[in-house]
Amino acid sequence: MIHQVKRCYLAMLCGACGFALAFSAWSANRASDLVEVTSINPNIVISLPYATEDNFCDQVLYPVERCFLRRSVVERLDKVQKELEKEGYGLKIWDGYRPRSVQYKMWAIKPNTNYVANPKRGSRHNRGAAVDLTLIDFETKEEVEMPTGYDVFNLKAHAYYDRLPKEVMANKRRLQKAMTKHGFQIMRSEWWHFDASGWTQFPLMNTGLDELAKQADELKGPDANP
Question: What is the pTM of this model?
Answer without folding.
Answer: 0.84
